[in-house]
Design goal:
homotetramer; Rossmann fold; Dihydrodipicolinate Reductase, domain 2
Chain lengths: 326, 326, 326, 326
């Protein structure tokens, strides 16, 4: 058994990380930390995950004594320092924040000055299905992709060589907005409502720009919906070369034939069909005007955050990629 | 007082028509019909609308005795015959179905052979804000636009002279799918779910093609969401001539400055903000890549159906356009 | 036109008060105040209500210059002082908080020392249907009942002379919990959840004890549900004298025959049927064991708060009771 | 590996049975049947459960060739015949319908003439925590309790010797109403609504009468809520002997100390905390008037149906009770 700590286990993503690691047959969950809920039992705060541990104040030394690896689920910026502390003590780390996803230049354009730029060289982008699997296997530090980016990239990746222009319209559940109570996450504000936000430029587009070839014109707008867990990327792609519907579907089959967590399906996916799973369901077709429509549905907390982080950790630790995720 | 009948008052749209007419200061609701609920009181089936009338079997003669005008809320195809029966008896009609929105050619391409083609010549498309106000004033037969089309057209209309390519991503509430109980409208199927449908070609695109200039490449995908009433059109428009954000916003200001029911706002709209109103809230901006983003939020049952039908009826009857709609 | 101010128009209840007064044919809304949103337009914060006024810092002198009456929608304790300031300047007041609903003794048992006990003598409990109509007509200060209490009392009032024991199980929408963002109002906390709270003693039971005869044993538990607006009181009443179902229904018919806002119906009510109306729908029956079951459904923001406050104000000002509420 | 068939795997409860059996380490799912979906893959109809089998027409002989035991998830009445067919072929059966829960007399009072009364003698009521564990271990036919009854009985069982009168107010999610699309399960009918039903006598009360001592007066009203999965029983119990809060809590601790699937907690439970688990969370306290309040929260599809059926099957087959249910 390899011992794993979850740092930041009080938020939605970190709490689920703890739940998955706790149920994982080859991992032992040895510590869960949370700044504001320290002292409470994890299964009191999140009964559904049934993790029988007490949330502790974060302390890198005490974590290092008990864990070989850590999942860090902090907000960006706070994450960088926590990751450095754990990497200095030799732990393998999957970080769920944006801090190690981008180049320093791209990061500082969209976020703020980087707190641990010396680690960027070793960080690997943790989307195995985008050709990063081998790198992840050898990595000491993996950056878990954003939930919006994960869905968008899974929908666009098979089209990368023919796409010229892509509109990405994201529909996302409220858990993606985090546990903090704000006017935007108030039930009355969300129920029976559709709320587009960050219309003029969302940070997650930086991940798309990084992972896709240069020269694809991208638009990207997330919409907050009255759903709890679930995320849909609807992508409208203008492609070179007038591909047929069959051509497009063949690109998807080829891209994901061997992927355990990506199902290419014959109809548009529904987010409810992937709820509480690490699966992505993707579908591509052509509309009347010849535009490629590509959809990807994920659970933002699973394939979009905690599930994918454990998938990455499995690879880093030499375990079967899907262990603990079914 | 002008007397008005609502034909098909058992469905969601027709029921609301009855409610609005009942509360209208210059109209008297003299008959409500419904095939499957005939014999029941309207306020038993729809208590919230408080219409103290009994639903009758539809009978054009009996309606014509009591009403000067009618709102017809039947499914397409059934509507055409009902409208003919009423027009033959001299009633002014607003029809909420698709039957009189399109040319015969376009209609028969998307639907089926037309049941009353002789009436197409007199039918006017009932979106006053798209330059149809004067025609509606003089019309005997008005075709209420589809809910998806209403929102999409309100978002695209100010851009019609510069748009070259438009992706329309629709998010719609379940009441738009009608009162029939199906596996797609079952609560368990809809809750915590996002469901794209008719991805390869939705009939409502025909209304966009008709109302917008030729040569705009259109994609159009509706998504069913766990909301009751509400509809958002998110439009991604590639425009000629590299307009600035200010240029775009000026086009919207100009288009809707005098429109009572369209608010041009400084931020993206939310569907909850128009719930149970006849208003549309629209917003336009430019993203980083220079694409125009245009959003319109409406209540699909109000501005997308019953409210707009009464707005049209007000015009046809020489009443103030907004009477009974506040 | 009588001029009215709404004090505390930034919260859900106060915002709706402003909306109703704005649309009221005999009232003019002359001021809206809000501490935290002062300076913003009301229709920017609550677009749906379409109130074209700017929220002001509360100032009793400035309000008194412009208003003959005020609706005060503050949290309890803060309300007492605000009401005193307005009463000292001669305004008629409907207060929506708990501050003037109870005797000083009962208030101080459930809340805290009273801030304006000298006003308790003139305050009238604002539930017209419970025999308070004439008192309200002559009152200068009316205390709007709590939403839970309104529904429970409407269900229990016809049974008051035969009830010996009553269990009141309340199901309430989230808007009743107020606009403040907390972990309990976070969408993720509320969605797909049922949350009983204050099980061991809810303050609203004090209103029931006051309005009902002594000697009825009461239990009272509210449950928070994933609904926005709406409140159901399910009451299980053990009655003296083995009344028949017809006896019980006759009591309800008698109690509410002349009440415009209370519908006695033949089946259990549904909260959706009163959404955005000032109506209560009530139903009573007997179960197999002879227990009386009585249900009342209201919209917590309308009949449970703002609507009822305007109903009270209509009475105080000599206007038709239902004016502006349809 | 023991081989198990799920008969009626097209409905919500049966579909989940298949999902749980498929993931169970000691069971092999060898057949899934469904009348209306026969020929479709289970994972096409219910992608989330990832069961890679094709739904077959039900045929007892073909099932008996491949399975040692069966879970039957048919509506009542249809179930009795299906169970007889399987029992005649020697399979152990857990039936999820009402057909084998009650005595013939009670069954025929609430339902209809029994289709297989000869099997009633061998049927055991499948609520292990109510003292039925040993009987279930030796049984060939187990009747899975109703979802409402499961929650109500778990809340009332510890109080059985002191309860004199109990009001049971049930709040239930829509999946409990089954997969059939009706006007009552239409999203628009359920959303933002509370709907009490069968107020004058619900069949599930028969299970309470059977499992609890004679002489407790019972009232029982279910309410349909806008939640997908989840069920809360709020019980209001008048007890003999004026027990203290500590007395009551001790009864609950004693009753469930050794129960793996029942958590006695210090605060009222929330249905969201048991979603997609086989756990019940229960809580008891005393209110001001000395009434005992007891709450039980379950997931209606898990502990209220499919999860409990597998728990029963584990016992019948000599497997660890919780295997495959975590």
């Amino acid at each position: 058994m390899l011992s794993v700590a979850v740092v930041g286990a009080g938020g939605f993503g970190g709490a689920l990380c703890a739940g998955i690691v706790h149920g994982h047959p080859s991992l032992e969950l040895t510590a869960v930390t949370a700044r504001s809920d320290a002292g409470r039992r994890h299964d009191e705060v999140y009964p559904r995950y049934a993790v029988p541990l007490t949330l502790e104040e974060p302390d890198a030394d005490r974590i290092a004594e008990r864990a070989d690896a850590a999942l860090v689920a902090y907000p960006h910026r706070a994450a960088a320092q926590a990751v450095r502390d754990l990497r200095e003590r030799g732990l393998k780390v999957v970080d769920l924040s944006a801090d190690f996803r981008l180049s320093q230049e791209a990061y500082e354009r969209w976020y703020q000055p980087h707190e641990a730029p010396e680690l960027l060289g070793e960080a690997v982008y943790g989307l195995p299905e985008l050709g990063h699997r081998e790198e992840i296997r050898g990595a000491e530090l993996v950056a878990g992709p954003g939930c919006n980016s994960t869905a968008a990239l899974l929908a666009l990746w098979p089209l990368r060589d023919i796409a010229r222009d892509a509109v990405v319209d994201i529909k996302t559940g409220v858990s993606g907005a985090g546990r903090e109570a704000t006017s935007d996450t108030h039930f009355v504000s969300v129920a029976d409502n559709v709320n587009p936000y960050k219309t003029e430029g969302h940070r997650h587009v930086a991940e798309l720009q990084q992972e896709l070839p240069d020269g694809i014109r991208l638009s990207f707008v997330p919409h907050l919906l009255p759903i709890d867990q679930g995320l849909m990327a609807s992508c409208y792609v203008t492609a070179d070369g007038e591909p047929s519907r069959e051509d497009v579907q063949a690109l998807f089959e080829d891209a994901y034939r061997d992927e355990h967590f990506v199902d290419v399906i014959a109809d548009p996916p529904r987010t409810g069909d992937v709820r509480a799973t690490n699966r992505a369901r993707v579908h591509a077709t052509l509309d009347e005007g010849g535009r490629v429509l590509a959809f990807a549905a994920i659970d933002n907390l699973w394939k979009g955050a905690a599930g994918q982080a454990v998938q990455d950790l499995n690879l880093m630790l030499g375990l079967p990629e899907q262990e603990g995720l079914e």
